[in-house]
Write a structure and sequence with these properties.
There is one protein chain. The chain has one domain: CinA-like (Maf protein), CATH 3.90.950. Helix content is 47%, strand content 21%. Strand 4 and strand 5 form a beta hairpin. Helix 1 runs parallel beside helix 6. The N and C termini lie far apart (30 Å). The mean pLDDT is 95.
Length: 164
């Protein structure tokens, strides 16, 4: 992660924590691609204890199924890198951790393609009381850069969810 990325992530995190506290909303994360980076960046921000419920690192499909309750049929049909899986992961985190908003990340950081998806393919899931959805991204760069960009996208989607 470059210093510019770090500063940007810190800024996005500050905005998200402030907005969550203002609106008295809690957040849970479900991370595959980012392996805890989103919750770590949030936790680095003063005040995070008032809004961050917790997070699940769901690197393996068995964790997505058993902890986050992602349908094994969905994973078998589309693989782990999919917008529907991202939405289900976010919903699973929201339910398992008792949060108002769930945010998830899944994707391919490289160096090899995964589940037929090229390196840089990322999905961010968002779940609220009104439902869940997944958003597709295509990033480029090194493994670390792709993971950093995914973390930034997740924080941006969290900010959008907090604004609604």
């Amino acid at each position: 992660m470059t210093n510019v990325q770090h500063v940007s992530l810190h800024h996005l995190s500050e905005q998200a924590v402030t907005k969550a506290l203002e609106h008295r909303r809690t957040v849970a994360t479900a991370e595959s691609l980012t392996a805890g980076m989103v919750s770590a960046v949030l936790a680095d921000t003063p005040g995070a204890s008032g809004m961050l419920q917790g997070g699940v690192v769901a690197y393996q499909n068995s964790v997505k199924e058993n902890v986050l309750k992602v349908s094994p049929e969905l994973l078998a049909d589309v693989g782990s890198v999919d917008s529907g899986v991202a939405a289900a992961m976010a919903d699973g985190a929201r339910a398992a951790l008792g949060a108002d908003i769930g945010i998830s990340t899944t994707g391919v950081a490289g160096p090899e393609a995964h589940d037929g998806k090229p390196v840089g393919t990322v999905y961010i899931g968002v779940a609220t009381g009104t439902g869940s959805t997944g958003f597709e991204y295509l990033f480029s760069g090194s493994r670390a850069e792709i993971r950093g960009q995914a973390c930034g996208a997740a924080l941006e989607r969290l900010l959008e969810a907090l604004a609604s």
